[in-house]
Write a structure and sequence with these properties.
With about 140 residues, this protein is α+β, with helices and mostly antiparallel strands. The chain has one domain: Roll (Endonuclease I-creI). It contains 5 helices and 4 strands. A 4-stranded antiparallel sheet has the order 1-2-4-3. The chain is globular and about 45 Å long. The model has no long low-confidence stretch (mean pLDDT about 90). InterPro entries: Homing_endonucl.
Length: about 140
């Protein structure tokens, strides 16, 4: 099928395998990043994004995640593809769904970056950092 990445839509994924499917989507076409927001002191931001050439596929994925996990996300147009992105609170929920057990098949590089992001955020939440790190922290996967 030519241009399948732009024509893919809904998929039939059993609910019990959806976390594994989601992890595969993230490993293949996802990204995560974080930064200190300069507008607010001690505001650490992070996001998980899923990219696709197919808007209908991302709308379907967004609908399923809203149905299964009660998270909304936001679809935006990127330069070459569509992006479904989730901010901090919803990203934590996604992480729990994608990595529900230890030793699952995963792209280790992206998993480690997400774990680092969550560790930084946990320290910020618990205020165990002595102070805000002033230089921006960018962690890309």
């Amino acid at each position: 099928m030519p241009n399948k990445s732009k024509r893919i839509g809904e998929l039939k994924i059993p609910k019990k395998y959806f976390g594994d499917f989601l992890r595969g989507c993230f490993d293949g076409d996802g990204t995560c990043y974080s930064y200190w927001d300069p507008r607010w002191a001690s505001s650490f931001m992070f996001y998980i994004k899923f990219n696709s050439g197919s808007l209908s596929h991302l709308k379907w994925l967004q609908l399923k995640l809203k149905e299964y996990l009660r998270i909304k996300g936001h679809i935006a147009s990127g330069r070459r593809c569509w992006q479904l992105r989730y901010a901090k609170k919803e990203s934590r929920i996604l992480f729990g769904k994608m990595y529900y057990a230890e030793n699952l098949p995963r792209l280790e590089r992206k998993y480690k970056k997400l774990k680092t992001i969550l560790t930084i955020d946990d320290k910020e939440i618990n205020k165990s950092l002595p102070g805000r790190v002033m230089e921006p922290v960018y962690i890309y996967a």
